[in-house]
Amino acid sequence: MPFTEPEPKIFACRQSVEIAEKIAEAYGEPLGKVSVATFSDGEFQPSFEESIRGGRVFLIGSTFPNSDNLMELLLMIDAAKRASARHITAVMPYFGWARQDRKDKPRVPIAAKMVANLLQAAGATRIITMDLHADQIQGFFEKPVDHLFASTLFLPYLKKMNLENLSIASPDMGGSKRAYAYSKFLECDVVVCYKQRKKANVISHMELIGEVTGKDVVLVDDMVDTAGTLVKAAEVMMEKGATSVRAICTHPLLSGNATQRIEDSLLAELIVTDSIPLKYPSSKIKVVSAAELFADVMKRVHSNTSISSKFLM
Q1: pLDDT digit string, tens, across residues 118-147
Q2: 234, CA 20 to 30 Å: which among 50, 89, 269, 278?
Q3: What is the CA radius of gyration of the chain?
Q4: Is 128 helix (H, G, I), strand (E, B) or coil?
């Protein structure tokens, strides 16, 4: 009797249940049953409460700090491997520890490479993620990586806004490639912020490369952490004559008092995805769901069809 590939099963890590439920609904399959036993010292043990033998499993989990989130995903991958799953796809809306993608000074780790090794050693056979901090992280894997772009979601949103004098901006030199890609698609100007830091997350000075007078500026970045850069950039741009400043950031880390900082800033709004659940609601933060994008790509992966149509740029 010929082997028929069973329908995949979708499971969620605890930190990503919210987006996983949306993905499962868009996919048309229910979330699988997982239980997690927690020991008194904080150690935990996930367990699949249904058979996954011989099938494909999608394990949804963003790996933002703390490190328990990464550990839970690794344990679920290992459990799936030991339960004889045929294909194990780690769906990581946010790939954490990605800022450490190179040695920028002596005697530091390359954490992104280490995480890639851990995922593969645990048993992941494929990775699906969105807006990596650096494109070259794909090369850290020996397994297939589907690197999705949130521009698929954000560009239609921007077009609907019909901003008259749109200008795309990068909050730093490293993000200029992303900003130029947006500007090419939207046929508008580009501004780049040149910033100097005293230390991580602390900006000492910022200058603009480009003209913002009379422009509706949209800052584009892959993540927002303390929001210090975005707030500073908005201040500088408004001082230079910008009509409005808003920001698009894929991953809303929003650590510390970042949400309040955005509330008090000159930013008109911050547009993010639900790759990471918001810690605090804000009238200035608009969430665009990535669930349908992930669900569609997961379907295409399962049916071995092309996902190239999912890339607007």
Answers
A1: 999 999 999 999 999 999 999 999 999 999
A2: 278
A3: 20
A4: strand
Nearest-angstrom CA–CA distance, 16 and 60: 7
| E runs forming strands in 122-253 | 126-130, 145-148, 166-170, 189-199, 202-209, 216-224, 244-252
208-229: per-residue pLDDT in tens? 888 999 999 999 999 999 999 8
Task: Find where tokens 């995922």 sit.
Answer: 119
SS3 call for 255: coil
Q: Are 34 and 11 in contact (CB under 8 A)?
A: yes
The span from the CA of 249 to the CA of 284, in Å, is 13
User: Helices H, strands E: what count in the chain?
Assistant: 8, 14
The residue to which tokens 């501004």 are assigned: 191
- In whole angstroms, give the CA distance from residue 45 to residue 99: 28
Question: For 263-306, what is each residue's pLDDT tens digit?
Answer: 999 999 999 999 999 999 999 999 999 999 999 999 999 999 99
- Calpha distance 270→286 (Å, rounded): 6
Strands 126-130 and 34-38: unpaired
C-beta neighbour count of 250 within 10 angstroms: 29
247 contacts 191 by C-beta, under 8 angstroms: no
Q: How many CB atoms lie within 10 A of CB 156?
A: 11
Integer Cα distance of 304 and 290 in angstroms: 21
Catalytic (active-site) positions: 195
DSSP code of 268? S
